[in-house]
Amino acid sequence: MKRLCFGGSFNPIHHGHLLVARAVAEAMDFDRVVFIPSAQPPHKPDPADLAAAEHRLAMCHLAIKAAADSTDLFEVSDIELGRVGPSYTVDTARILTRRGLGPVYWLIGGDTVPQLPTWHEPQPLLREVQFVIIERPECPIIWQALAPEYQALQSGVVAAPMIEISATDIRRRVAAGRSIDYLTPETVVSYIRQNGLYRAMPGAGHV
Questions:
Q1: Which of the listed ranges 69-83, 112-126, 192-206 does the model predict with the highest average pLDDT?
Q2: Residues of 23-49 as b/e, b for ≥16 C-beta within 10 angstroms?
Q3: How many CB atoms lie within 10 A of CB 81?
Q4: 48-87: pLDDT as tens digits
Q5: DSSP states of 23-46 as a string?
Q6: With 50 as the cut, is the pLDDT of residue 182 above it?
Q7: CB atoms within 10 A of CB 9
Q8: 63: DSSP letter
Q9: When comparing pLDDT for 9 and 203, which is higher?
Q10: Which of 50, 55, 84, 169 is the least crowded, having the fewest Cβ atoms under 10 Å away?
Q11: Per-residue CA distances from 50 to 65, 73, 76, 161 (Å)
């Protein structure tokens, strides 16, 4: 089975994540997309608006169950939640490989590519992972400005639909007491409301 790993904070997961994941899977013939919420995002140390890992994991499970056909394509893994310290992608990839789940394909946005040299163990990471890159026309990658080993990643670029939804906007709307209906599955909206997530911010109100 050909799997595509989709890591991130998913704070919270939303329709943009789901639509892009499905589009990439269809374009590149992946059998499954595995959502991997991070316990401690390495580039977001202790942000005040980061929901607890167990909440973000629960919302991922709710989101993939929201559509009748999504369970045939999507799954959720808690592989990063049992580790202490930053959730480094290279460590996750090594664990997946040891479990016989390689090769490890990892989905990232095009805006992330220039940041890859700053990721933990960047050279081993390039050996452990085959990156699949979402093309973002509004954030073109200047490939010639990258080192040769990163220029080689251009072969993994795939077009995906432009979805103007962001987790940051969802959190801000919750804090401001505005509706987040239609931005994320209804079950996730209800979970955020029931658990009082994202309200402990300046100007917090009700969903």
A1: 112-126
A2: bbbeeeebeebbbbbbbbbeeeeeeeb
A3: 16
A4: 789 999 999 999 999 999 865 656 899 999 999 989 899 9
A5: HHHHHHT-SEEEEEE-SS-TTS-S
A6: yes
A7: 20
A8: H
A9: 9
A10: 84
A11: 23, 27, 19, 26
CB 169 within 8 A of CB 15: no
Residue 127 pLDDT = 96
* Number of continuous H segments (helices) and E segments (strands) in the chain: 7, 6
Q: What does the pLDDT read at residue 203? A: 43
Contact 60, 11 (CB under 8 A): no
Long-range residue pairs from 63-72, CB within 8 A, at least 24 positions apart, any chain? 63/13, 63/14, 63/17, 63/18, 63/184, 63/185, 63/187, 63/188, 64/18, 64/35, 65/187, 66/185, 66/186, 66/187, 66/188, 67/18, 67/185, 70/18
Distance, C-alpha 48 to centroid of its chain = 19
For the chain, give the percent of residues with pLDDT over 70: 92
pLDDT digits (tens, 9 = 90+) for 149-172: 999 999 999 998 888 899 999 999
CATH, range 3-165: 3.40.50.620
Helix segments in 40-103, DSSP class H = 53-65, 89-98
Distance between CA atoms of 123 and 128, rounded to whole angstroms?
9
What are the sequence ranges of the domains in the chain? Answer: 3-165
> For the purposes of burial, counting CB atoms within 10 Å of the CB of 187, is it exposed (0-12), middle (13-18) or buried (19 or more)?
middle
Tell me the C-alpha distance between 196 and 207, whole Å.
9
Nearest to 76 by CA among 139, 148, 167, 13: 13
